[in-house]
Amino acid sequence: MLDGMNTTNNSEAGFGNRKSTLRLNQTTLKNTIHCNGVGLHSGADITLTMKPAAANSGVTFIRTDVEEGKGEIKARYDLVSDTRLCTKITNEYDVSIGTVEHLMAAVAGCGLDNVDIELDGPEVPVMDGSSEPFVFLIECAGLLDQHTARQVVVVKKEVSVKIGDSVASLKPADDYTISLAIDFENKAIGKQEKYISVSAASFKNDISRARTFGSVQDVEMLRQMGLARGASLDNAVGLDGDRVMNEEGLRFDDEFVRHKILDCIGDLSLAGATLMGQFIGYKGGHALNNALLRELFADESNWELVNAAEFTPAPALLQAAD
User: Fold this and answer.
1) d(Cα 54, Cα 147) in Å, to the nearest integer?
2) What is the pLDDT of residues 116-164, one digit of tens each?
3) Helix spans in 63-203 (H)
4) Which of 41, 102, 259, 286 is catalytic?
5) What pLDDT is recorded for position 17?
6) Which end of the chain has fewer surrounding CB within 10 Å, N or C?
């Protein structure tokens, strides 16, 4: 998101206590639901519709404003085509959907597995710059148990990637956790770090409300690049030097690192299933997150796809937990 322009808190037990926090069956929406909003980068007025989908179909984006049969784009890491200040996915017909990460974070955070997402424009609307409006929509539509086993991607071996001074890794673990540190020269942000055990409750309460952010000094340059055309203080935390411009201030003292975790959850959800592993990142972003997934799936010995009900931590992990 715009936060890319400047380059143990544990609120709930994680998936280690998996019977109480990890859904064992796949879900879809009970009802269709709609919203309207502006595209952060395109500036376009966009209508979004979320519809129930069949078990094992995953998350599918559908552009309704292009030729019929060419607008379907699966939410997959290998279809990511651009990571400049957002995550964009593109299909074989060169049709794209941009800024998918906030919505994908809400889908993953709420435990929604199968959904069709229709859009009449090139980008997911930014809403208030966080995932909270999408969580609200999903909760209003409701979740339907599809009585089909849910699958999880179990990290079997540690994988790491590095871009410049940014680094990220995934390690085997008996739950899904994220530990992230950021370091900005801007004093309004500075150095922040946070750990979260990812669950529906921790995502909704601790992460979903954190907004994207950026420097107003960079907006004109970005608009000349065709980006940030819809950016405003209604959908981002604006920084003027070291000053937060939003009249209401920040939602959290560490809202910046919380939003980076939000982006991370959205980007990693493009794995296609819930991860079982420990993510550790420093000065991360969309490009790094996608590179990490590509590294994970580059070697089949790095991971395993299993039914959630059958997931059992490796003996070494159980011993470490003791």
Assistant:
1) 11
2) 999 999 999 999 999 999 999 999 999 999 999 999 999 999 999 999 9
3) 101-110, 132-141, 200-202
4) 286
5) 42
6) C
Read off the amino acid at residue 11.
Answer: S
Strand residue runs (E) in 206-302: 213-215, 237-240, 243-244, 274-282
CA 199 to chain centroid:
13
Is 286 among the residues known to form the active site?
A: yes
Give Cα 207 distance to the centre of its chain: 11
The predicted-structure confidence for 213-225, as pLDDT tens digits, reads as follows 988 877 767 767 7
Average pLDDT score over residue span 181-192: 96
User: In the chain, what are the helix, strand and coil shares in percent, each to the nearest 5?
Assistant: 30, 35, 40
Using CA atoms of 76, 277, 154, 89 in order, give the dihedral in degrees to the nearest 10.
0
The CATH number for 240's domain is: 3.30.1700.10
* Distance in angstroms between the alpha carbons of the first and the last residue of the chain: 40
């208030």: which residue's tokens?
128
Distance CA 13, CA 142 (A): 24
**Residue ranges of E strands in the chain:** 25-29, 33-38, 45-52, 59-63, 72-74, 80-82, 88-90, 96-97, 115-119, 143-149, 151-155, 159-163, 166-171, 176-183, 191-197, 213-215, 237-240, 243-244, 274-282, 303-307
What tens digit of pLDDT does each residue of 254-286 get? 999 999 999 999 999 999 999 999 999 999 999
Domain hosting residue 259, numbered range: 2-321
- As a whole number of angstroms, the distance between CA 121 and CA 135 comes to 21
